[in-house]
Design a protein that fits this description.
The chain is an alpha+beta fold. It has 11 helices and 10 strands. Helices cover about 45% and strands about 15% of the residues. The strands form 3 sheets. Strands 3, 4, 6, 7 and 8 form a 5-stranded antiparallel beta sheet that branches. A 3-stranded mixed beta sheet has the order 1-2-5. Strands 9-10 form a two-stranded antiparallel ribbon. It is elongated.
């Protein structure tokens, strides 16, 4: 589901909290503990307290050792800061922690081997500062990733934005078919036309931040509305879905159907003047399916059609489209990209198994085993996509 249409604060794993280490899912702790999916205990690991501040970035790391270890990053300044542990020569990143607040300490767990390393501290309102170079004389380090810049993300974002423009053309066309069926009093035809139009819009999920208020008119739920499904502010696809599957007349649905086409058309016509934020593209690759798990697989967005699994499948298509744009960046940065692609294929096969002709199995008709399979497959995929969000989070260097 497009996030802004929920009329709630989006679920965000990355903004304002400690970044999940880009190395955990890439295999650093896997080598030490035997599985990248298992949480690795850190109590027994060597620990070093490192200062985070513009004047003393990296101070405290005086006895470098090889192997898996924990750096306790202590911010002694008055400003929040991002912290990166880099290769001193190539600036490849071994680990990162975002938003280390003033007076707080955040852990960073990495595996280090022979090489030269340095911490880089990036305060919110000051230039980046690189600490002293520290050399480890033996051992094998965990994987590192070359940092991504906003400049790197501009071409894939422009390509994705152009694709969204074509997608909006199709969404308008399909929504017009839905409106025409309602106008002609053909409610059976409207129910048939509703799903293709809705799924087409759902495939555009990574663009929701640029859709602004339009998404609330097109794809909102009734969450937070005083009148619930009967509130005049309840509009868009789900308003029509509710009416079509709860016995409302064509006359009642004509105005909502016309408003939907009007809102989609206005969004399409203004899209060429819109600019998506390149820094958000990697995050969106993760958030699309994260929110699918939270809202579609729980049935919270079902207003009678029973098509949550179809929406999940459309969201998977949307995720694939984002990843296809990011793949040139990920190929040299994400060692487990084949595993991610394998999970994408597994999720697609699982969801397609619940489509029989043009009919999708409703969530409440899944067996317990089927439900557990869907939850596990999508949950594993979301876990892998968290690495994409981290690896494609552009690093500020000044």
């Amino acid at each position: 589901m497009l996030l802004s249409g929920l009329r709630r604060r989006p679920l965000r794993l990355w903004g304002g909290v400690c970044l999940v280490l880009l190395l955990v899912t890439a295999g650093v702790l896997a080598a030490a503990q035997g599985s990248h999916r298992a949480a690795a205990p850190t109590d027994a690991l060597p620990r070093t307290t490192v200062e985070v501040s513009p004047s003393h970035c990296g101070r405290g790391w005086n006895n470098p050792i090889p192997g898996v270890q924990v750096f306790d990053l202590r911010n002694t300044s008055d400003e929040p800061a991002e912290v990166y542990l880099e290769d001193a020569g190539s600036q490849a990143v071994y680990g990162a922690v975002e938003d280390v607040g003033p007076g707080t300490t955040r852990p960073l767990t990495v595996r280090l081997g022979e090489g030269a390393y340095a911490f880089m501290c990036v305060p919110d309102d000051a230039d980046a500062v690189t600490g002293p170079t520290v050399r480890v004389t033996r051992g094998r380090s965990g994987p590192a990733a070359a940092p991504v810049t906003e400049h790197d993300l501009i071409p894939p974002t422009l390509g994705y934005q152009k694709w969204v423009g074509h997608g909006l053309d199709e969404a308008v066309r399909l929504a017009a078919k839905l409106r025409d069926a309602v106008d002609h009093g053909d409610l059976a035809g409207a129910r048939t036309a509703w799903l293709p139009a809705h799924l087409q819009y759902e495939r555009l999920g990574a663009a929701y931040g640029a859709f602004g208020d339009a998404d609330g008119r097109i794809n909102a739920t009734d969450a937070g509305l005083p009148g619930g499904v009967h509130d005049p502010s309840f509009t868009g696809f789900h308003r029509i879905e509710y009416g079509l599957w709860h016995g409302q007349s064509a006359r009642t649905l004509r105005a909502p159907a016309a408003a939907l086409v009007k809102a989609l058309t206005a969004l399409r016509d203004s899209w060429s003047q819109t600019r998506m934020d390149p820094a958000q593209l990697g995050l969106r690759a993760h958030e699309i399916l994260e929110n699918t798990v939270q809202f579609e697989l729980t049935g919270r967005t079902d207003y009678g059609s029973g098509t949550n699994l179809a929406t999940a499948r459309a969201n998977l298509d949307g995720t694939r489209e984002v990843l296809s744009r990011l793949r040139p960046l990920l190929t040299t940065r994400y060692a487990d990209l084949p595993g991610l692609e394998g999970d994408l294929g597994r999720a697609q096969r699982t969801l397609d198994g619940f489509r029989h002709g043009g009919v999708w199995t409703p969530l409440d008709r899944l067996s317990r085993a089927q439900r557990e399979t869907v939850d596990a497959v999508l949950g594993d995929l979301v876990e892998r996509l968290a690495s994409v969000a981290t690896l494609c989070d552009p690093r500020r260097t000044v």
